[in-house]
Each structure stands twice: as C-alpha cells, then as structure tokens.
Amino acid sequence: MKKVLVPALFLATLVIFQFCSSSKKAQKAPKITYSNKVQSVIAGSCAPCHVGNARSGHLDSYDSARVHIDEIVRRIQLNPTDKGYMPSKRQKLPDSTIQFFIAWKNAGTPQ
Ligand code: HEC
Questions:
Q1: Distance from the CA of 87 to the center of ligand 1, in angstroms?
Q2: How many Cα atoms occupy the beta-carbon half-sphere of 49 within 13 Å?
Q3: Which of 23, 26, 34, 62 has the most neighbouring CB atoms within 10 Å?
Q4: Cα 38 from Cα 99, distance rounded (Å)
C-alpha cells in the first residue's frame, strides 16, 4: 500500500506546486499597455471604421483610445442588436477581449 501512496503523494505535490507557480506567473504577467496590446486589438477589431476614418471618430492613437475608453467599454458590452453596439455590424468580441479592455481601463489606461 505504502509503495503506491508515496509516489501518489509525490505526484499530487508536484501538481499542486505546478498550479501555484503558474498562478504566480499570471500575477507577474506584463501590464497591459496601449503600445503592447490595445493598439493591435483596435487595429484588428475596429479598423477600418476607426482607423483613419474621421466619420466614425478616430481610435487610432493612444490619446483617442484613452479619451474614449468609457464609451468603448460600454458599447462592446451591449448586445449586437442594441443601438450603439460595437463593433458595428460585426460579431460580438470574444469575452476575453472585452475583459481585456476593462482591465486596461481599470489599470488607468497605461500607455
Ligand atoms: C463597421 C464599422 C465599425 C466598426 C468595425 C467599429 N465601429 Fe465603432 N463606430 C462606427 C460608427 C459609424 C460610429 C458612429 C456612430 C455611433 O456613434 O454609433 C462609431 C462610434 C463608436 C464610438 C463612439 C465614438 C465617439 O466619438 O463617441 C466608439 C467608442 C466606438 N465606435 C468603438 C468601437 C470599438 C471599440 C470598435 C472595435 C471593437 C468599433 N467601434 C468597431 C463604426 C464602426
């Protein structure tokens, strides 16, 4: 019995240790900033309407994204059928992307 138990406990400890160290890594993840992430998400999901297009308002600079962050967070959480929903005429953003905009806002929109 002991012969089985010892390796089993050892394995369990390994698994737990692995879990703890990976959650620590997650906390140490680099901060979300405009230049390391926001810019590319906007370029990917909100262009061409908001990049180089004066009619729908530019979101293609740090300042314009920062100034509009409340509206961005509000609109991307609407239902696609709601008035003001963004990205207009497209599928709703994945939840991880929505959470990502919220995290950037809560972090104080770092550049
Ligand atoms: C197919 C074109 C299109 C796409 C894609 C699109 N938008 Fe828009 N957006 C518009 C138009 C047109 C308006 C102006 C009308 C309005 O306010 O609803 C607008 C307005 C906005 C506004 C308000 C701007 C202001 O000056 O108050 C925000 C914020 C916004 N969009 C965010 C986004 C975000 C974030 C994305 C990407 C996730 C996105 N939009 C994708 C067309 C688009």
A1: 6
A2: 9
A3: 34
A4: 12
